[in-house]
Amino acid sequence: MALWRGWSIRTRLTTLTGAVMALVCAGMTLVVLLGVRNIATEYRTEQIVDAALRTVHLVKRNQLPSILPYQNVRALQVVDAHQIVRAATPNLIGREPIADFPPDENSVRGDRVWCHMPAFPDECMIVVAFRIYQSKGDWTIYAADEGVPWYVDLRAIVSLIIGSLLLTGVTTIGAYWQVGKVLEPVEAIRRELFEYTATDPGRRVPVPRYHDEIRELTLTANKTLERLEAAVEQQRRFASDASHDLRSPLTAMRAEIEAALLDPDQTDWTATGNALIDSLDRLQALVSDLLQIARLDAAAPGANEPIDLAELCRTEVDARQRTVELVQELAPGVVVQGDRLRLSRLLTNLLDNAERHAASEVRVCVCGDNGWGVLEVIDDGSGIPPAQREVVFQRFARLDAARTRDAGGTGLGLSIARQIAEGHGGTLTIEDSDRGARFVLRIPRTQ
After folding, report:
1. Vertex 350, ends 344 and 356: CA angle to 5°?
2. H-helix or E-strand containing 55?
3. pTM of the model
4. What value does the mean pLDDT take over residues 392-400?
């Protein structure tokens, strides 16, 4: 079994094909032998019957000699009604009857295969018995000849074996070649995937011209490589944007410290410290968001408990330091299943985004909708154009208006919020609103 597991698919399929063909050839050889043996046995029996009929003719014409000619069979005997041998072939002179079975009452002929006769020890003979009606009792003619062996004839069995071996060999060689041709695209896929690296994500596996399962495999592999290339490119952009956003607060901190050290006596260290704290806050927020994204990308399991959306929103809104008016429209009894900490983070990110862009008011609404728990966060700012509504969910994506107005955002909050929503089996989208941006969260409702 261990050796079989170590073989290649090509070797396995070829071996199986050869084994199956060998079994088929063995079965066909057996069937052919049985058929030929039956024919040969019938032909031999007819020869024996013919010799017996010739002897019957001699008896009826009263021309029966004491010594019978062989007539192409090995044994002939004429036995009278008292089981006395009246005539026989030379090899049976002086011997007892070679058989003792008469034909059936309703027939003049009976056939049997008789083994271990005294005259022919260690042999099985085909014996034909003929009844001859005589006035003083029925006589019986026994004619016998050797039976047909299981292999019929040595030349026949050798021919069948050689033919089976040739057919098995040709089939095995053909299967090896054909399986190799079939697996050529698989080998091409293997080579291409082996050479695939992150530095060259544009490689694709060759697509065979035949419309079969292997073609479907190559198309699927290419689609997978396309998604992998997109993921690699996204990671590159993410790393580039992350390094840029991490560098910005560090550069600001370095500039503050270097400026202060140029003239320490004239430096307002309180203002410098406050500037450094602002940069540290931004750096801390960015690192926190990066860690959250890493946990979400790793699909780390979270808690799973029933959560009342209205209660969650009321708790988070009441605990916030408000920069604009927060209006709550919370329908009770909308319960979903999920991780309270992550859903709180989702709501916090939506509220942070809404407060940064609101003119004077942010509304938080909770309701149920056909088996879904719905949470809406709506601001009265300038809104988001329809063409940009998916862009804002990309990592480090900030619209031009946001860049001029929102200096404190990391560009990761909305991306994190959508990942949390999708992790709960829900969706987070931006839908139409009379004024401002309207973020809508939908999560499967438990009651």
Report:
1. 130
2. helix 9-60
3. 0.49
4. 72
Alpha helices in 108-212 (DSSP H): 154-195
> Distance from first CA to last CA of the chain, Å, rounded?
55
| Distance from C-alpha of 292 to C-alpha of 325, rounded to nearest angstrom | 29
Candidate CATH numbers 3.30.70.260, 3.30.565.10, 2.102.10.10, 2.60.120.600; the one for domain 305-444? 3.30.565.10
* Highest averaged pLDDT of the listed ranges 213-217, 255-259, 387-391: 387-391
Cα separation of 278 and 358, whole Å?
22
Helical H runs in 196-308?
Answer: 213-262, 269-297
Q: Where are the beta strands (DSSP E) in 276-369?
A: 305-308, 325-330, 335-338, 361-369
Q: Which two tokens stand for residue 94?
A: 């002086």
Rg from Cα positions in the chain: 50
Measured distance CA(177)–CA(159) in Å, rounded: 27
- Identify the CATH class of 198-300: mainly alpha
Q: Is 302 exposed, middle or buried (0-12, 13-18, 19+ CB in 10 A)?
A: middle
Token reading at 214: 């292997």
Instruction: Please give the structure tokens belonging to residue 250.
Output: 């560090």
Q: What is the pLDDT of residues 252-301, one digit of tens each?
A: 778 878 887 887 877 787 888 887 887 787 777 777 767 766 666 666 67
> If you average pLDDT over residues 79-92, what whole number do you get?
91
Give the C-alpha separation, 105 to 154, whole Å.
40
Encoded tokens for 84: 């006395």
Cα gap 51→170, rounded to integer Å: 47
- Whether the pLDDT of residue 29 is over 80: the answer is yes
Q: Report the CATH number of the 11-154 domain.
A: 3.30.450
Q: Are strands 427-431 and 438-444 parallel, antiparallel or unpaired?
A: antiparallel
Instruction: Write down how long the chain is.
Output: 447
Angle at 311 between CA 309 and CA 315, to 5 degrees: 115
In degrees, rounded to 5, the angle at the alpha carbon of residue 143 between the alpha carbons of residues 142 and 145 is 140
